[in-house]
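CRP-like cAMP-binding protein
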Amino acid sequence: MTNRVPAVLEPRDSSGDPALAGVTGTQPTLRRLDSLRPNTRPPVRNAILSRISPDGLAALGECLEPIVLKERMVLQEPKRHVEHVYFVESGLVSLRVVAAGSMLETAVIGYRGVVGASFLWGGHLSTHQSVVFFPGSAYRIRVEELRRLVEERPEIREHLFEYVQALTFQCVQTGLCGVRHDREQRLASWLCLASDAADVRVLPVTHDYLSSVLGLRRAGVTQTLSRFEERGLIRKMRGVLEIDEPKCLEKRACCCYKLISGAYASSQSAIPAKELMG
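Tokens:
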């Protein structure tokens, strides 16, 4: 059961993040707003919340609920009403297109983003399935309450729009990547993007999982990961994969990795049309 948040988060030591330990987390520690020193920025980890002014975050805090993100938890289903928007603090959520018994991942969402922001375009139904695959924590807010707040506080709307632009770009670029780039490039790109999104080097992924979300043959995934390991780029362990040489792995990734990373780093920047083609 979740508790409504009348305050902001205490600073957290990321070395003790429950998501990094591979176990489900506990509810974040809270403190009252009036205990903050004047002009102190509320110390939240979510990249969107961290950019909102203290006054704006205080208004949001009245409506936010802390929630533990458990592995395989389904946050949204396609063609279902969107009830909550989730500001991810830790862990990873897989955004998927599901049709005719098949599934394809279009993006991973970590501490930089939110799940369920489609309401900004006036949509009431989810177009994707959102599933937690790396446990962690988040803050959720009812769509009706967030819709009211973005009308009252334009800065909240602005930060959400900036993120949605980057997320939309990733979804489109991922679709193009699937038909334009080879298996090794796609796997390297996915590992780099997931590592960035969670801000960790150890990912709880299996060969079966990667085969499923990327639409690749399992044997091919195993073969490619073995080559990465032989080159010292990664280390495979039971149920997890550790990235040992992120910079070298980035060189194996297709151009989609840099384009998507750039979109998140600066979603206001114009991306030339020729670059979108990869």
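The two ends are 45 Å apart (CA to CA).
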